[in-house]
Amino acid sequence: MPRGCRGPIMDMLHAVSDIVDFDYVPFGNANFILPECGDDIFCWTTTCSVANPPAECFKGKLACQHGEEECYGNLIETCAKNATAQNPLKYMPFVNCYEGEGDVSRANMEACAKKHNLDAADLQACAAGSRGQALIAKEARKTVIVPGRTTEAYVPMAWVATGAPTTGAPTTGAPTTGVPTTGAPPTGRPTTGRRRGCRQRGHRQRARRPPATLSLGRRAPARLRPGCPRPGCPPRPGRCCRTSGRC
Length: 247
Fold this sequence. Notes:
By secondary structure, the protein is mainly α. The protein contains 7 helices and 2 strands, in the order αβαβααααα.
């Protein structure tokens, strides 16, 4: 995981984990080796992203972008997800520790497992056995259906699914960044037309009115109606005094 993502992801999980379905998929640019494809990730993706992929697509030996160490780290992290019942608030602190300095060795795994209350022996047994192979195959299935992986020009490493709940990665359209790319803007403002008072093309712009000024001088004395005495004097019977006075 990119180092710059770790802090913001944890901040997000602590803030809105009750309304966000977060799933960390430790697979990346990896693929299972097929006889007809070898370690060609684009061949594997094209072959295995169909509706009913061959059984060989998700079993056997893995090929990872950064070599055997990355494959081992992916298995360990997949097993950590399983050990914490897929709870990101529990497995992501381990992932951040494990990948903290780019050291995915067994020694670092054991140190981080101890720090975050995970059983290092169980993680190692999981990664080395059939349980880990079954778990990593599930992560591969989530990754292979991401749009764009069949072209060399674009191999997405992360995606965000927005809108209705999904069972994994979006199966149609390009991966989104959480912002709708079609339809009306999220604020509901119209996409065409002009606001009232806006000039048409070719017209000269109207001069803006100067801003109103507020005078902070003394308050002017109240105006008196005819026949009323000065302020402070009792009104004459039958006459109205001041604008708000009574007869």
